[in-house]
Structure to design on (952 residues):
């Protein structure tokens, strides 16, 4: 900008711009008219700065626009300079207003963000460079000053900027001072209308008069507006406008509880509760609702649809609230956009409070009678609960009476599970609706519990738009619930928090509000019914304990009577799961000293609960190691299961676990397993269930130990029995052989022939005596206490020959005819000494049961790697012994020794032992009766190898 000596409109000159500024500032300080201030500013700028464009505008904060106040242009038309310029986002002018700092442009005709000034720059004389300077005071922008030049890129000097800053600063200060003085003169005083309204309300005789006084006072104070009072119609779920009393006739009867004098149907002026939206909750919270279109926007509390229904451009609403009970609201409506002053808001709020205090007086008698009736009903419920023997009947009477008094669609009593706090259906009253209630509800969220504890009664008058009880949205939406109340039973004080037994839910299928009296009635009934629910919980707990005790006795007795390990494992998991009502029970077991455990077949109610991982688990597994450190049942959640253990404990849908080791702690014995129980997430294991699990686990442990002890002793007995039998048979065979050789030795002198022949006979007898030690040597050296059988290839012919030779004495005595048939030129695999004794035992048994003079046939044949040797006799076989010999030889070892059996006495004892020995050699010894009535002893042995050990 080019600076020159200032020239004023009267033709006078000042020597310097600074001197002219001083004179201008002095005139501005003495001025009391805003237009004069603006004109002084424009005169000084026009005189000091050579600028073909000077424009000054004031900022309208409410409408976010600049209002032109005039200036200087080359064209004589001043329309553009005095026009209103709305500020658009991103424009240079808005940037100057918001940032409150000057901006210089080299060529505003090339700057799109200058808006209309870019388009008009050529018409204004080809304006290019420009300076836009804010008019601000105390961080508030009051307007802008724009200087334009026909020269590109022209800028102002520091001296010029200082002059502009001083001038515009004084202009802003003077304008703000004038604005403050104007506000003080025009501001409405709240004290006078409040005092007048209070006196008038006290002197009025009816609610009709009080409403009329309120509307007149508000219209007088606020101006050209409409004032309407809306009352809350709870039964119809809407707000209805106050009915004006007719000029003739008797006065309208007073309103009670914020309702209309007559039960007239809703007309066009009524506002449904669902259309109020957030406005209803704001009013119910005791806040004033403000909405206006002066800035082109509307607050979210009042929807555009509601504004259209009210036919208003601006709305101010205050609640008529009495002890958190919304009786209605005062609505001030304007046909033009406007901004509501604080005093107006305060007066409307005060008027709402006056009406809230005056409204109960209209129906005081009716309210007293209603409160007395409610109190009597609560006392009747209390007497029924504490005196009636049948508390269930008392509950039914209380809930049905409550539902009828509240005109509710349903009243539901929910009992809380003590462990999981899961509400489940206990009793229901239905007046409408056929959709069945769910047997169990989702647990309440922490936020819902907090709201319930703070307010005692949780209310959702428009449940579809309410954020309360979101946890039950799915259950209640299916029932068509539109409004509800929820409270807890019993009494919870601030100093002592008693456990909550249950909840009472009141539902309605229409939008409706719940009065303070209705909430108090619900709370009073809920406090009394806590006794019924507490008694029911105690009864359920008693029944549950009795059920656990009976089931525990049955389970423990069953476990004590079992005799096999698989039966113990299966019974433990099945009985435990059924007793506790859980979907999965499994057991990991191992023998003492083992490093790995076996996952036994689990008991599961569904296939997805069954683990699908490996069945052999290391005892170093973190889950097993963690469980073995506990002497009591260990509860775990799914998140607490170590990741390494989830490879085998991978049940789907289970989130609560209980682990109990089988033996640990005080008994100082190594555990034999871990019992693992699985349930749905959220399951809480109560102390009775834990005690039952501990007793079952200990019983299972001692039963396992008893079975293992018995099996160990029986297996040891089997070894000793075999050793005893084998050594006894060897000793008997040695005795018979020794006696026979001694007899032969005594006959040597009588042997015909020379001395050499007799000596040869003695040598032969001596060789026979020497052969007696063939099997006794290894037997005495390696089989003192343990059985150590050998496996060699033995000629079958030699076995049969020696067996028949040992049987000669018995066959001669009973005049039997033994004969061998079939292929004897084959070998069998096994322990040679034991095979001799086994065949001897079979032949002796067959010979003893054969009749005198009968036949004894031996048949042999080889087939598919086995040699079959049949001993056929014509005797009579004890049928009991025959049936006992058909049992599994291995199971005979673990038979109850206290039970009498043909296998515990001879010959069954020896024959059964021979069966087990043959089985351990890979063969089979069986007995049966052939079709012709003869009895067969069948000895099946593996075919021997080519290397055959000679038999002595």
């Amino acid at each position: 900008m080019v600076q020159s000596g200032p020239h004023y409109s009267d033709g006078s000159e000042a020597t310097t711009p600074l001197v002219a500024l001083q004179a201008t500032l002095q005139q501005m300080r003495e001025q009391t008219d805003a237009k004069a201030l603006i004109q002084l500013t424009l005169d000084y700028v026009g005189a000091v700065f050579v600028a073909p464009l000077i424009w000054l505008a004031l900022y309208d904060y409410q409408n976010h626009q600049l209002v032109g106040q005039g200036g200087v242009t080359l064209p004589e038309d001043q329309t553009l300079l005095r026009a209103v310029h709305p500020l658009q986002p991103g424009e240079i002018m808005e940037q100057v207003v918001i940032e409150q700092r000057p901006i210089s442009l080299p060529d505003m005709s090339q700057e799109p963000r200058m808006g209309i000034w870019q388009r008009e720059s050529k018409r204004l004389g080809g304006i290019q460079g420009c300076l836009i300077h804010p008019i601000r005071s105390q961080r508030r922008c009051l307007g802008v000053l724009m200087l334009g030049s026909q020269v590109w890129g022209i800028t102002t000097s520091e001296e010029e900027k200082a002059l502009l800053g001083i001038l515009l600063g004084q202009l802003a200060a003077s304008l703000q001072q004038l604005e403050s003085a104007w506000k003080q003169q025009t501001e409405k005083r709240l004290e006078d209308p409040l005092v007048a309204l209070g006196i008038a309300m006290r002197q009025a005789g009816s609610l009709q008069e009080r409403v009329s006084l309120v509307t007149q006072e508000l219209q007088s104070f606020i101006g050209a507006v409409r004032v309407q009072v809306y009352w809350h119609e709870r039964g119809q779920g809407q707000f209805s406008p106050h009915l004006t009393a007719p000029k003739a006739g008797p006065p309208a009867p007073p309103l009670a509880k914020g309702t209309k004098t007559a039960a007239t149907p809703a007309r066009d002026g009524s506002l449904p509760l669902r259309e109020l939206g957030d406005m209803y909750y704001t009013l119910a919270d005791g806040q004033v609702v403000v909405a206006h279109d002066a800035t082109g926007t509307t607050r979210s509390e009042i929807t555009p649809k509601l504004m259209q229904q009210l036919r208003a451009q601006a709305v101010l609403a205050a609640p008529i609230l009495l002890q958190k009970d919304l009786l209605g609201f005062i609505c001030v409506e304007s046909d033009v956009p406007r901004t509501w002053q604080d005093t107006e808001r305060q007066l409307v709020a005060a008027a709402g409070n006056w009406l809230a205090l005056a409204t109960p007086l209209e129906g005081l008698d009716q309210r007293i009678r209603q409160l007395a009736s409610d109190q009597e009903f609560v006392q009747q419920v209390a007497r029924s609960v504490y005196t009636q023997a049948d508390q269930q009947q008392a509950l039914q009477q209380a809930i049905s009476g409550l539902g009828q008094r509240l005109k509710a669609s349903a009243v539901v009593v929910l009992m809380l599970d003590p462990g999981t706090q899961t509400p489940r259906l206990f009793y229901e009253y239905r007046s409408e609706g056929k959709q069945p209630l769910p047997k169990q509800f989702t647990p309440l969220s922490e936020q819902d519990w907090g709201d319930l504890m703070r307010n005692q009664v949780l209310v959702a008058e428009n449940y579809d738009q309410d954020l309360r009880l979101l946890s039950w949205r799915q259950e209640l939406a299916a029932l068509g619930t539109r409004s509800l109340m929820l409270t807890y039973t019993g009494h919870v004080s601030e100093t002592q928090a008693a456990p909550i037994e249950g909840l009472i839910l009141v539902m309605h299928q229409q939008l409706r509000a719940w009065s303070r009296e209705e909430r108090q009635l619900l709370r009073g009934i809920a406090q009394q019914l806590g006794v019924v629910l507490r008694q029911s919980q105690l009864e359920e707990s008693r029944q549950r304990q009795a059920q656990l005790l009976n089931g525990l006795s049955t389970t423990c007795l069953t476990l004590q009577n079992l005799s096999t390990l698989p039966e113990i494992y299966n019974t433990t998991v099945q009985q435990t799961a059924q007793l506790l009502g859980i979907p999965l029970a499994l057991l990991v077991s191992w023998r003492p000293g083992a490093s790995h455990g076996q996952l036994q077949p689990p008991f599961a109610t569904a296939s997805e609960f069954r683990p699908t991982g490996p069945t052999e688990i290391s005892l170093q597994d973190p889950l097993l190691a963690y469980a073995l450190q506990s002497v009591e049942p260990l509860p775990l959640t799914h998140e607490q299961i170590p990741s390494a253990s989830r490879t085998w404990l991978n049940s789907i849908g289970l989130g609560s676990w209980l682990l109990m080791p089988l033996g640990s702690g005080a008994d100082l014995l190594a555990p034999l397993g871990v019992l693992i129980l699985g349930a749905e997430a959220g399951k809480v294991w109560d102390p009775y269930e834990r005690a039952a699990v501990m007793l079952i686990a200990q019983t299972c442990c001692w039963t396992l130990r008893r079975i293992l002890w018995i099996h160990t002793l029986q297996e040891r007995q089997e070894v000793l029995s075999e050793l005893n039998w084998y050594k006894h048979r060897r000793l008997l065979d040695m005795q018979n052989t020794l006696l026979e050789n001694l007899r032969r030795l005594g006959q040597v002198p009588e042997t015909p022939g020379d001395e050499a022949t007799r000596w040869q006979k003695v040598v032969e007898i001596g060789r026979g005596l020497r052969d007696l030690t063939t099997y006794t040597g290894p037997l005495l050296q390696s089989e003192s206490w343990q059985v150590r059988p050998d496996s060699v290839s033995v000629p079958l012919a030699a076995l049969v020959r020696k067996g028949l030779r040992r049987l000669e004495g018995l066959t001669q005595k009973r005049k039997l005819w033994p004969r061998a048939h079939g292929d004897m030129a084959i070998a069998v695999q096994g322990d040679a000494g034991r095979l001799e004794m086994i065949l001897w035992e079979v032949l002796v048994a067959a010979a003893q049961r054969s009749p005198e003079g009968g036949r004894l046939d031996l048949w042999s044949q080889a087939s598919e790697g086995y040699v079959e040797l049949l001993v056929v006799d014509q005797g009579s076989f004890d049928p009991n012994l025959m049936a006992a010999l058909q049992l599994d030889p291995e199971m005979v070892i673990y038979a109850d020794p206290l039970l009498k059996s043909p296998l515990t006495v001879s010959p069954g004892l020896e024959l059964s032992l021979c069966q087990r020995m043959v089985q351990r050699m890979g063969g089979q010894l069986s007995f049966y009766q052939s079709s012709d009535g003869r009895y067969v002893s069948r000895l099946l042995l593996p075919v021997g190898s080519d290397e055959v050990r000679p038999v002595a």
In short: The first strand starts at residue 2 and ends at 3. The radius of gyration is 55 Å.
